[in-house]
Design goal:
- GO terms for molecular function: cadmium ion transmembrane transporter activity; manganese ion transmembrane transporter activity.
- Its main location: membrane.
- Keywords: Membrane, Transmembrane, Transmembrane helix, Transport.
- This protein has 558 residues and is mainly α.
- It has one domain: Amino acid/polyamine transporter I (Up-down Bundle).
- The longest helix is centred in the middle third of the chain and has 35 residues.
- The N terminus and C terminus are likely disordered.
């Protein structure tokens, strides 16, 4: 079982995309001369920098997708769906805090924990060091080498589809802010859209491939603060009734609002932030991560509420579809040109910040789920390299001591030698995920597809993915093999979030899957049953004598 990790500060690494904020204000080491030692920052300034570092979670969340869905919810249903914001915010804090704690205590991301759950024992290390290992045992060793769990493939598929569609929305958001002011002939219009989209895609790729995300995260934190100011001014210029605002915190679903409500929750508690949080938490303490996650969650909630209020300023006529350009014009008519300009600036800033974080977060998610390793985190990478070196040394020693005629066993031992990690942050697979998202985004935006439809579709996928991630996280947090702690209160919060999200996801998706056949009372019954079954299963995982397992070594006893 892995030991509890202590507070460490990762060193700079060429393949590292993320470094802890501590590296920006560490005390000088004893080996450094006093003349060359950097001056420590004031504690207050160091705390501000740390919070800006964690604002990356808010930057990834508040993008054109969030702006569109929150504003659409405000335009279509006024303030009746504001209850989705506190629900999503509480869920976000519970999930992100659990993931961060797992990274700090056990040194594992969610993907790594899933590998540990399905393949709990390092049989290769144990058996390869045993000089009396028989041929039958060697067969078991080779069979025990971990393969990617099936659940990881399923989660990766949902993550890739959802986040690629969301990345399309981020790229489209910046073009929308430019398109609002452009009024030229069609041939030039198409060329301009292509050039702006290409420039943004190249900029995102350049920043991510350079790997200077530590400084970018702090810059994105400043962008988030600017967005708060921007939407605050717009919201108060439009005005709102405090009675309607507080009554909106009472859960209700107006007709045909379930899909929008699910999207509002999924875009506030963004699934890829589960993997971003794991990387951000590497090398920090639990206290530091809780402060950072709390700050990011509060900022996201405030921004979401402000955007809903801004959306109420767009009074749609019967049958009129929500449109970002129409919203900007409405803001200009009702609150003046300043509000219009601020809204478009906020949209552009959100597009840029989310374009970076969504692409990187999706790559981190696939890396974690397919490899079971968090190679972005320096501490985890060093631990993995150390374990691989131990296996390699043990196997090499055995090969040198065996009879040369025993080729069969030798081949089996050679198969155990560790291979180069194919999902390293600088590898082609990791970068390929980013390139794939940007290519699809470029094609979607330049083709002129409906941006609103793409955003809603991405959030429907995200709404299905979110309770699935919550349930997987609940399993891993209660698995002793993973090596992390989980209190009854933490379990209760995670069980509640998983249950509510599952019921809402079924309520939203069932009519789409059945072609509208599942409606009304039958839909309520189906979603209620789904929520109840999820609750029972989640309670079994959290408080049962043994968490659910589907491991090869005990599958015969199931």
């Amino acid at each position: 079982m892995p030991s509890k990790s202590t507070h460490t500060h990762p060193t700079e690494d060429s393949s590292s995309l993320l470094t802890t904020p501590s590296s920006s204000y560490n005390m000088p080491s004893s080996s450094s001369s006093s003349s060359s030692s950097p001056t420590p920052l004031h504690p207050f300034l160091a705390q501000v920098i740390s919070l800006l570092y964690w604002a990356m979670l808010a930057a990834s969340t508040i993008g054109p997708g969030t702006i569109t869905l929150m504003a659409k919810g405000g335009a279509d249903y006024q303030l009746t769906l504001t209850w989705t914001v506190p629900l999503a915010s509480i869920t976000a804090y519970v999930v992100y805090e659990a993931v961060a704690r797992m990274q700090i205590e056990a040194g594992k991301s969610l993907g790594g924990a899933l590998f540990q759950h399905y393949f709990p024992k390092n049989a290769a290390t144990e058996a390869s060091s045993n000089q009396q290992t028989s041929k039958s045992t060697l067969n078991k060793i080779v069979a025990a080498v971990p393969h990617t769990p099936v659940i990881s493939y399923a989660l990766s598929f949902l993550v890739l589809i959802s986040m690629t569609l969301l990345e399309c929305a981020q790229i489209a958001g910046l073009w929308a802010s430019v398109d609002y002011y452009y009024d030229g002939p069609e041939p030039i219009y198409s060329v301009a859209r292509m050039l702006v989209t290409l420039a943004l895609c190249l900029f995102v790729a350049f920043i991510l491939f350079r790997g200077d995300i530590d400084n970018i995260s702090k810059a994105l934190g400043m962008v988030v603060i600017v967005m708060v100011i921007t939407f605050s001014i717009s919201a108060f210029q439009i005005g709102f009734d405090t009675t309607d605002l507080f009554s909106g915190f009472v859960p209700s679903l107006p007709e045909d609002s379930a899909t929008v409500a699910l999207g509002m929750i999924a875009t506030t508690c963004l699934p890829i932030n589960v993997f971003l949080t794991s990387s951000l938490a590497n090398g920090l303490t639990i206290s530091e991560t809780r402060k950072g996650i709390g700050f990011a969650t509060i900022i996201t909630a405030i921004l979401s509420l402000l955007i809903i209020i801004v959306g109420t300023g767009d009074e749609l006529e019967d049958g009129e579809e929500f449109n970002l350009n129409n919203l900007a014009r409405t803001l200009k008519d009702s609150a003046g040109q300043t509000s219009e300009v601020l809204f478009l600036f906020g949209l552009a800033a959100a597009s840029l910040s989310s374009g970076l974080t969504v692409a990187m977060g999706c790559a981190l998610a696939c890396q974690s789920l397919f490899s079971g390793l968090d190679t972005v985190g320096t501490e985890a990478r060093q631990r993995t390299e150390s374990e691989s070196s131990n296996v390699e040394a043990s196997v090499t020693t055995r090969l040198s001591q065996r009879d040369e005629t025993n080729n069969t066993d030798d081949d089996m031992l050679i198969d155990l030698l560790p291979k180069k990690e194919p999902w390293a942050a600088g590898g082609w697979r990791f970068r390929g995920i980013i390139i794939l998202q940007l290519l699809v985004s470029f094609c979607v935006v330049t083709s002129g597809l409906d941006t609103i439809g793409v955003i809603v579709l991405s959030q429907v996928f995200g709404g299905v993915l979110l309770p699935t991630l919550c349930f997987c996280l609940l399993i891993c947090m209660n698995d002793e093999e993973v090596g992390t702690s989980q209190s009854n209160l933490q379990n209760a919060l995670l069980v509640g979030a998983t249950t509510v999200l599952t019921g809402l996801a079924v309520y939203s998706v069932a009519p789409l899957i059945t072609g509208g056949l599942c409606q009304g009372d039958s839909l309520t019954v189906v979603s209620g049953i789904s929520g109840f079954l999820t609750f029972v299963a989640a309670c079994k995982v959290a408080w049962g004598k043994k968490p659910f397992t589907m491991r090869d070594d005990d599958s015969a006893h199931v």
